[in-house]
Write a structure and sequence with these properties.
single chain; about 325 residues; Arc Repressor Mutant, subunit A; 2 domains; 15 helices; 5 strands
Length: about 325
């Protein structure tokens, strides 16, 4: 399959659901005949090569006959070799990074840094880099404006949909209620729309999105602004969400190509959220400290020990 055909597959895939032919191979592997399993192994070992290779080349690498490759294609639900390659090319649209092997091993060998497991290096290094990027990129004036909005808000709602964005919305709730602020969070986009429709002047919506492209979140922001609520976003610069809100808190973090480790942008957004919460607490001042004192007092009296522990633990 040539480059032109592959690009055609990509274009057609953009407007349709992507078939997960690689998932089909994994799921049906145990039901394949040994010769067909050899074809499956060959394809999974180098998916991109399988897309570009002729039928005879795949057969040669797998050590089987050309008709076996055709039988393999039928066995996994394709109409033939051409249909199989088309679906395989579409699978690559999702991201070839997930098809590669993991670099490094769970247990390091040698001395010094070389003894660290590879995920120690990727997770810790990327976390440090993400924090450095927040310090370098974050607009401090925007942070101060957002904190002022939250400190005087009649009501605060944090919205994040899916994955870490929903978790960060919940974290915003946990961080801000400790200052005595009326805050809630949701990861349900329909509930978010209903809440946005109930907002008033003096209320604040915090929208969180790792891409800044989530249509439902942007629509929720537009709805909140229609009812004169103020809006803050934790997202990437230049995105549709960053442009939709009154105060964007935006940084861009390049992702490390290790699919088994958390996204570095998650660390960056959590850092922004911590900075925003701290700035808000300082803005509120004595009333925030009194609320924190009450919470800590009632936590400490329920547990043994005198060491100053994290608030809420």
């Amino acid at each position: 399959m040539g480059e032109e055909a592959r690009q055609g597959a990509v274009t057609r895939a953009q407007g349709a659901a992507l078939p997960d032919i690689i998932g089909q191979i994994h799921d049906r592997y145990a039901d394949l005949r040994p010769a067909e399993q050899a074809v499956a192994d060959c394809v999974l070992a180098d998916v991109q090569a399988a897309v570009y290779s002729a039928n005879s080349d795949i057969a040669a690498r797998a050590g089987v006959s050309a008709p076996t490759v055709t039988r393999f294609c039928h066995a996994i639900g394709c109409r033939g070799v051409r249909d199989f390659k088309l679906q395989l090319a579409r699978s690559l649209v999702v991201g070839e990074i997930y098809l590669g092997s993991v670099t490094g091993t769970p247990d390091g060998e040698g001395a010094g840094d070389a003894a660290l497991p590879s995920y120690f290096v990727s997770v810790l290094t990327e976390a440090r880099r993400a924090i450095d990027e927040v310090e370098r990129q974050l607009d401090r004036d925007a942070l101060a404006r957002a904190a002022e909005m939250l400190a005087s808000a009649s009501r605060i709602v944090a919205v994040g949909v899916g994955g870490s964005s929903a978790a960060l919305a919940e974290e915003a709730h946990h961080r801000l209620f400790r200052y005595g602020l009326p805050v809630s969070a949701t990861g349900d986009i329909y509930l978010a729309r209903m809440i946005a429709a109930s907002l008033r002047e003096g209320d604040v919506l915090i929208a969180i999105s790792g891409t800044g492209r989530t249509r439902e979140v942007i629509e929720t922001v537009d709805l909140a602004r229609r009812y004169r609520a103020r809006t803050i976003a934790i997202t990437v610069p230049g995105s549709a969400l960053a442009k939709a809100v009154e105060v964007p808190l935006a940084v861009r973090i390049g992702e490390y190509p290790d699919t088994l480790t958390p996204s570095a942008s998650r660390v960056a957004f959590l850092t922004i959220l911590d900075l925003l919460a701290a700035a808000t607490g300082y803005r509120i001042g004595a009333p925030a400290r009194e609320t924190l004192r009450r919470i800590k007092y009632n936590v400490v009296t329920r547990v043994a020990g005198s060491v100053l522990e994290p608030l809420g633990d």
